[in-house]
Design brief:
By secondary structure, the protein is mainly alpha-helical. The protein has helices at 9-28, 33-42, 55-69, 77-92, 102-106, 115-126, 142-154, 160-186, 190-214, 221-227, and strands spanning 129-131, 240-242. 60% of the residues lie in helices and 2% in strands. α1 packs antiparallel against α7 (142-154), α1 runs antiparallel to α9 and α8 (160-186) runs antiparallel to α9. It starts with 8 loop residues before the first helix and ends in a 7-residue tail after the last strand.
C-alpha cells in the first residue's frame, strides 16, 4: 500500500496497525537474533503496509535496510554487545539525552512524568486504555504511544481515525522528530539510527494520509500549540491494559 493508493478502509486500518506494532517492537527491547530473523524473513522494512513516498521516509527505509543487511543472524558477540549498549544508551540510561518519553521533550524543565504524560494518560483513559505499569514504562513512552495509535487504527468507531490524527498532532509528532534527530546524531549503530528515523518519517506520512482521508488539513505547529488545553476529567470506566511488548513480525 502506498501513500497514493487507498485500499478498503478495514484493510487500511489493519495494515497501519500492524506497521505501528512492528515499529513499536523496534523500540521495545534490544535487537537480538530472533527479532532480526523475523524482520528479515518478513522483508522489513520493504514489507511495511504503508510504503513511504516522501524523501525522508524512503531514505530512512533504505538506510535501515542496509543496516540490517550488515547484520547476520546469529550475530557476533561484538555486534550483539554494541547493539545492547546502544539500546541502553537510548532507552534505559538516557546517556544520549534522547529520552523516548514525551514529557522530557515538552516539559519546560525537561523532566520525566510531568504534565504531558498525564495528558497522554487522559487520552488513553478516554478510550478505556491504560499503561500496564507506568512506573516501569511511563504512559508517554514511545512504545506505548505507538501501541495506542495501533489500537485506534483497529477501532472501527467513526471517530477513531480523527482521534488518531489528533493524538499525532497533540502528542507524538510534537516530540518524535526531535527524538529521531538526536538519536541519529548521537547513537553508535546504524540500526538504531534507522529505526528512529523510519519511525518519525512513518508517523509524519501517516498524518498526511489521515488528513486526506478525513478531508481536513493538518494544523500548523502554532495551531496545535494554541489548541492544547487541559483535558476534562475522564469518567471512570473499566480499563483495558496495553502490554507494550507484543511481537508482530
Amino acid at each position: 500500500m502506498s501513500a497514493q493508493y487507498m485500499p478498503s478502509l478495514p484493510d487500511f486500518r489493519a495494515a497501519i496497525a500492524q506497521d505501528l506494532t512492528c515499529l513499536a517492537t523496534l523500540h521495545n527491547a534490544e535487537l537480538d537474533d530472533p527479532l532480526l530473523a523475523r524482520l528479515k524473513e518478513s522483508g522489513f522494512p520493504a514489507a511495511l503496509g504503508l510504503q513511504l513516498t516522501g524523501e525522508a521516509g524512503r531514505s530512512a527505509a533504505y538506510f535501515l535496510a542496509r543496516a540490517m543487511e550488515g547484520l547476520a543472524a546469529p550475530m557476533s558477540i561484538a555486534a550483539r554487545d554494541e547493539l545492547a549498549a546502544d539500546y541502553a544508551a537510548i532507552y534505559l540510561t538516557y546517556a544520549l539525552h534522547a529520552s523516548p518519553c514525551e514529557s522530557v521533550w515538552l516539559d519546560q524543565e525537561n523532566l520525566a512524568m510531568q504534565a504531558p504524560m498525564f495528558q497522554v494518560r487522559d487520552f488513553y483513559r478516554h478510550h478505556r486504555l491504560a499503561a500496564a505499569d507506568w512506573r516501569t514504562r511511563p504512559d508517554d513512552h514511545l512504545v506505548l504511544e505507538l501501541h495506542f495509535l495501533a489500537c485506534l487504527l483497529q477501532d472501527d468507531h467513526p471517530e477513531a481515525l480523527a482521534e488518531a490524527a489528533r493524538f499525532l498532532d497533540q502528542h507524538l509528532l510534537r516530540w518524535l522528530p526531535r527524538f529521531a534527530e538526536r538519536v541519529v546524531a548521537r547513537c553508535a549503530t546504524p540500526f538504531y539510527a534507522g529505526a528512529a528515523s523510519l519511525t518519525a518519517a512513518y508517523c509524519d506520512e501517516l498524518r498526511d494520509l489521515l488528513a486526506g482521508l478525513l478531508g481536513q488539513p493538518r494544523p500548523s505547529p502554532e495551531e496545535v500549540e494554541a489548541r492544547m488545553q487541559p483535558h476534562p476529567n475522564p469518567s471512570e470506566a473499566p480499563l483495558t491494559y496495553m502490554p507494550g511488548v507484543a511481537e508482530s513480525w
